[in-house]
Batch of 2 targets.
Target 1
Amino acid sequence: MTQTVDRTAATDTPQARVDAWLNRFETALAARDAEAAAALFAVDSYWRDLVSFTWTIKTVEGREGVTGLLEATLDRIDPSGFRTTEPPTEAGGVTEAWLEFETASGRAKGHLRLKDEGAWTLLTSLRELKGFEERQRDRRAKGVEHGVVRGRTSWAEKRAEEDARLGYEQQPYVVVIGGGQGGIALGARLRQLDVPALVLERNARAGDSWRKRYKNLCLHDPVWYDHLPYLPFPENWPVFAPKDKIADWLEMYTQLMEVPYWTSTEVTSAKWDNDAEQWLVTVVRDGEELVLTPRHVVFATGMSGKPNVPAFPGMDDFAGEQHHSSRHPGPDAYAGKKAVVVGSNNSAHDICAALWEHGADVTMIQRSSTHIVKSDSLMDLGLGDLYSERAVAAGVTTDKADMIFASIPYRIMAGFQTPVYDAIRERDQDFYERLEKAGFRHDWGDDGSGLFMKYLRRGSGYYIDVGAAELVADGKIKLAHGQVDHLTRDAVVLADGTELAADLVVYATGYGSMNGWVADLVGQETADRVGKCWGLGSETTKDPGPWEGEQRNMWKPTQQEGLWFHGGNLHQSRHYSLYLALQLKARFEGIPTPVYGLQEVHHKA
C-alpha cells in the first residue's frame, strides 16, 4: 500500500505533469497531428510565438488557433526535443515550466502554464540559428593571430578599413534609420550576427537624442529594467539614470560594441525598387549626398513617431516663446515668467516641475484624464518581482524577467495587472485623494489595469510620479481643464473662454504613429500600406479594434517587403531586438522564412 501511494504521488508532481504533457505534445507534433496537439490545450488558451514557429511575432488563441498554426508550420519547422530546463513549480492550480527545444533551423526556449484542462499559456521563442550562433563564451573570437605575420594589420586598422568600405564599396544588407537606444541595440545584435548593417543618426553624436532633451529629464524606469544587450549597466549605476548619463552610455556602448554607426547623417528619401528587390535610401552625410541600396530598412525612430505639434489659431500672433516638449531646452531662462504647458502626461509633469523649481509661474492644461502612479509604489509592487535587486537575489536575471513578461499574452495581461494597481490604489489612497481634491482628473485605465496596459495600448495617458504630482496636489502647479481654442499675443484661451496669461507655451502633446516617418521619407501610399504602428486593438481609448493580439507592426514583417519597425522603451529595445535581428539574419543567410499570419492593416494612422 505504501509503495502504491508513493508511486501515485510521484506521478502527480509538477515535473511529472509537465513531462507527461510535453511527451504527448511532441508525439503529436512528430506525427504531424495538429488536432491532437491542439487538444492538449485548454479551451481558453493562448500560444505566443516569437519567431520560432511563425517567423513573425504572433499569438493564437484557443484550440482552433493552435490547429491553424501547426497545420501551416509543422512540416517546415520540424520541432523536437522539448524538455524542461529547471524544476517546474505549482501555485493556485497552475503549473509553470521553463522549456527548451529545437527546430529545423534553430534553438528555442519557452514557458508553459498548465491547468487541469490542459495548456493555458505557451510561449515559444527562437534564440539562435543553427550554424550561425553568436561568437560568445566558448565560441568567442580569439582576437589575435599568433605567430609572425609579414604585413600584419592591427585591429584598429581593420576596423578603419571596414568603416571606410561600408556604405561606399560595400553596401549594407540592413539600414537602420534612427540611432537612439533602439537603433543602437539592434545594431549591436546585427553586428554579433555578422549581418552588414548601418545605423544612421542625424545628430552629431550617439546619445544626442537623449543629450539634447530638457536638462532634468531622467529615466522613470529602474536600472534593472533598462540594460542593453550584452553589456549591462555596472552595479553602481543609479536606479534612475539622468539623461546625460544615458547619452554618454549609449555613445560608449556604440563604440565598445563596434556598431557601424554614421552620425550627422540625415535620410532624405527612401524608395523600394521592386525589380532589384532593394531599397534606394538617399542620405546626406556631412553635406555629401549618397544613395545606399540595402535589402532591408528598419525604422528605429522610437516608439512614437513625429511630434504632434498642434495648429491652434493665433499661434503666429503669440509674442512669447512656444515649442513642442521634444524641443524644450530646460527651465533656466524662464524664472519669473508665466508658463503654460499643454498636456498632463510624463513630459508635461517633468517640464512643469522643473519650471516651478526655477521660479516660473506654471499652469498645466489637462485636456483629458491621466493615470498617475508613484514611482516608489510602481518599483515595489509593479516591477519588484522582476526588475529589482530583490529579483536579482532571487535568481531572476534580466533575460528571465523579460521572458516572464513576454509569457503573458496581451489578451489576458490586464487581468495580471489589475490586482497590482488595486494594491497601489490602496497603498497611496491619501495621495490620490489629495490629487483629486486639487482638481486633477485621474483614471486607472479603461478597465482599471493601470500604466503598463495604457503604455502597450496607446503609449500615452500616464505619469510616473517622481515629484511633480505632489506640486499639483499642493496647488503649486496650477491646473486648467479643457481644450485650447486659440492663442492671443500674450495668452492661451480655452474653449470655455478661460484666458491663461503666458510668456511661454510648451506643447506636451505627444507623438503620432511611427508610420508618419514612412510617409515623409517613402510616401503616403507606403505608409498606408503598412498602417498604424503600436497598440493592440483593445477597443479602449486611443486603441481602436479589431483585436490584433500583438503590437501592430513592431519587430516583425509588415505589408511592405523589406520594411520593419523597431522601438519602445529600453526593455523592449533590448528584448525584441533579438527576434528582429534573427529574422534579418535568416534572410541574409538564405534560410526560408515563410511568415504565418502576416498582420492585416486595419488603421492607417
Note: The chain has a mean pLDDT of 94.
Target 2
Amino acid sequence: MGRDGAGARERKRHGRHYTPAALAGFLAGRVAARISTSGRVRVLDPACGSGELLFAIKAALADRLPGVPVELVGYDLDPAGLALARQRAAESGIGAEWRKRDFLADCADMPAESFDVVIANPPYVRTQQLGGEAALALRGQFGLRGRIDLTHPFVAALPRLMAPGAVLGLLCANRFLTTKAGANLRRVLLVDLTPVELYDLGDTKLFEAAVLPAVTIAVRGGTWGSCRYVSVYEEGAETTRSREIEGVAGALPAVGAPGSRAECGPAVSAREAPEAVAGRTASVSRGAAEPVGSPAAGDGEPELFAALGGTTDAMVWRQGRRFAVTVGELATEPGAAAASMGWRMSRVGHDDWLRGVAERRWRTFGDLGRIRVGIKTNADKIFIAAHWGDPAAEPELLCDLITHHDLRPWRIVRRRETRVLYPYDLDHPRRRPVDLERYPRTAAYLEQHREVLSARTYLTGAGRQWFEHWVPQRPHLWRMPKMVFPDISDRPRFALDRSGAVVNGDCYWISLSDLGGEARAEELACLMMGVANSSLGVRFYDAVCGNRLYSGRRRWITQYVSRLPVPDPATACAAAIVRLVRELAQDPDPGPAAHGELDELVNRSFAL
C-alpha cells in the first residue's frame, strides 16, 4: 500500500496495516515451533492482505517439517492486496487459495475443525469507525460484550475452525492485554484456547500502524500450564529511576515504631546527602546494563528478535533507541476474573513484592473516591479558546480550564489562559443547562454555530439540548479542591487544584469532597499524590496495569489509577509523606534529592 495521505486514511478506515517481513517471520517461526505432524497442514489467514503471513508460515513449516504438504487459504476484501498476493505466489511457485470474500460473513458456513494453523493480523477498526448498528450486529453474532473493535469478531470466530491441537498465531494491538474492552479477546484465549506464548512488542514501531502490537501464540485444547510472557519497551528516564529504586525497595528494613519522619525515613536524609542515595541506587541497579548492539549498529531487528527468544532480561538498541526486554510468565486472576481483569506479567521476586504491597495496603484510590474524566464538549473549537473575543459570551459562563499542558507533579502551572464556555448552572449538583434567554451574548454566539452543534445528533437523541457538552460532569464540584492528573503522560503528574477551574477531557480528577472532611480530605489527597508521583507508583502501574504507549507514555485512566495502593494514614510514614508532599507543593523546583526522599518514604510505608 502507498504511503500517501489518502492511502494512509484508507488504511486506517479499513484497519489495513500489512505485516512487515521481519515481524511476519518471527510470528511464523513461533507458530511453526508448536506444530508436529507427518500429515498435511492446512493454514488459514482470515485477513491476508498481500499474503506476507502465509508466505512466512509456508517457509517456517518447510524448515520445521520438510516434505510435509502445506495448504494455504487467505481471505481478504482488498483487491489490490490480493492481486499482489497472487503475483507473489505465482512468482515463487507457491500454491494457495485466495478468497476475495468477507471472512466474517463466510465463517459460520465453513467446516468446523478444518485448519491446523491460523495466522492472522486482523483489521483494527474501532467501534466509532464501525458504526453503532454494525458493532451491535457483530456483538450479537459472535457473543461479544461492550466496546469492540473489528479484531474481536475475527478472533472469536477462529476457535471453531481450529482442529484439536491447532495453533493460532495472532498479531493485534496490545490494548487487549489490559483494557476493559479487551476482556472479549482474553475470554476467547482463556476459555476456547490455551495461550502458550505472549509478546508485548510495545513501542518498538515494528510496523506502520499507530497501535502498539502484541503477538499471541495459543493452541486449541490442552491444559493450562505456564504461558511465556515477554515485553519490550523503550527504556526512559522514569523507568530507569523505577528500576533503581526497585532494588532499594527490596533491601529496605521494616518500618520502625511510630514517631518522627526521621524514624520512618532514610538513615541519611536525601536532601542533606543526595550522593548517599545515588550511591545506593546505583549499586543495586539491575544487571544487563550494557545493551546488545549499539546506537549506530543498523536497525537492531536481529538483536531484538533474538532477545525475544531469550530466557533472561536484556537491553537492545534499535534505530538509535534503547529497549528493555523483560521475560516472565502470564499471571491471571483465578476463575471468572481471569478475563475481566487485565493481564500482567509474573516474575520471580516481583510477585512477592506485589503481595507485600497488598498486605500493607490500607485502601486503593478507587476505594477512596470516584475518579472522573474531565469534560468532553465534542466541539472544542467552539467551546474552548485561549482568547475570547468581546462580546463573545457572558463572563460568568467562561470558566478557567485545566488541560494536560498545565499539570506538573504537585501543582497546576497554567501555560495559557484557556477558558471554556460552560453553559451549566454551577450551583446545581446535577447537569442543568442555563436558560439562554438570560445570556443573550452567549445565545448569539452559539446560534452562529448551531449547524455544527446540532449535527451532534447523538446528543439531541439522548434528550439533551443542542448547545450542551457531551460530558459536562458534576458542575457544582468544580469549585471544590480536587486532585487532577493527565490522561497520557510519561511520568505521573498528580496535582492539587484549589482554583475552581474546570478540568478538560484530556485529564482525570478526584474531588476532595469524596475523601471526607476538609482536613482529612487534604491529608488523604497529599498521601495519594505522594504514592502516585513516586517511583513505587510507577513500578506498581507497570506491574499491574502496564498500558504504556510510545516513548514511555502511560495511560492514567480510571481503571488503572483506581488500583493504586494507599498506605494506612495513621502510620508515621504516612504522616511523613503528607508533610513532605506539602513541602513539595510549595517548592517551585524540587530537585532529585527531594524526590529521592519521597521514594524512600513511600517504599518504607509498604515495606514488610
Note: The first strand starts at residue 41 and ends at 45.
